[in-house]
Amino acid sequence: MVCVYEDENWGNFYPLIQLRPVFDLLFGCRTLLEKLRRRYPKESFNLWVRDELAELVQEQHPDCLVNQPVQPPVLFISASAVLLEKMPVSGPEELFVAEKRIAGFRLSQPRSWKPGFLGRVQLNLPEREVKARVYAYIWELIRDNPEELKRELKTSARRSAGVFRNRSARVHRSAVILSEQGPVYLDAGCEVRPFSLIEGPCYVGPGTVIDGARVRPGCSFGPRCKIGGEVECSIFQGYANKHHDGFIGHSYVGAWVNLGALTTCSDLKNNYHPVRLQLKSRSIDTGMLKLGCLVGDHVKTAIGTMIPTGAVLGTFASWFEPGPAPKQLGTFAWGRTGRWRREEILDCARRVMARRDVVPGPAYEKLLLKIFELGMTDEFLSRR
């Protein structure tokens, strides 16, 4: 059995982890969990997540166990790990480390552990260095997305460059797709409309529409997005609208987001210093020269919105006021000082999701209201 667990760093992936576990984040062409399941196609999976996510994760992954005790032999893998080699499920008890970060561990003897967050202090096991990348912050996914796209597409297509197109993908003859800097994959049912430009490496997910957009290298678009304007080195989780002019660069955009016409983010400081980002009252030096914005699920921006470098917009935040958006906008914010009314949340979510023929399940709606009750950023993350 393989057990994928969220460790103590889950809060560093805020705001994208308010409505999903870390392993359901898109990175390259697939989510982190999809990558692991492709490495272990014959193994059963047990998913250890935060308590408030358990019901939703079970709803979305019905073929997996969720928060169930395990019986050795079992291989534990961090939810934020990308394995570059397969670690056997059976073998001696070991702690697997990649560049001083824990990628996972293997148990062959029964333990009294229950589902929860696992850190190095709980594991008194011999260490072994493995080939893997373990991510501690969400901006590291943005940083490494171009190379991950090249790695995945080279592995699946067995060559380093080219345009790979599902039979049901549609590309207008006036569109330009360039693969000199990396491969491009057009997944099932996607559409590249007239006068669009796509520069690889890039992944265009199922049903996504590229509508006259200028897509620069390093982008991943999940299912059923609508993309216009200019996008560079950014990840769109899926079901998001950025259908008009405006620029989004070096950013991570959640699901069910609607970016109004001319919404533009800055991804470079005027002094060319590395971008600092505010997370749980901490100002963190990301070490990245370019970093745009982290946009949670169901965020909405008005036309002409200007988003500053290193901004964080929490789940269901709505910005419509004059002037630049603040660098940090909390969950369910309504402008600078207001907040959504509880009775409007589910009605709005249902209307938005119906536009993509999706009906939110009971667990999803329950979690939305739970996040509303938990409050703003610091209150949500204080449970770490």
Automatic annotation (TrEMBL):
Presence of the UniProt keyword Acyltransferase in the record: yes
InterPro entries on file: Bifunctiontional_GlmU_bac-type, GlmU-like, Trimer_LpxA-like_sf
Family annotation (Pfam families): NTP_transf_4
The entry's keywords: Acyltransferase, Transferase
UniProt keyword annotation of Repeat present: no
Gene Ontology molecular functions: acyltransferase activity; nucleotidyltransferase activity
Xref: SUPFAM superfamilies: Trimeric LpxA-like enzymes (SSF51161)
Protein name stated in the entry: Glucose-1-phosphate thymidylyltransferase
Species of origin: candidate division WOR-3 bacterium
Source lineage: Bacteria, Bacteria division WOR-3
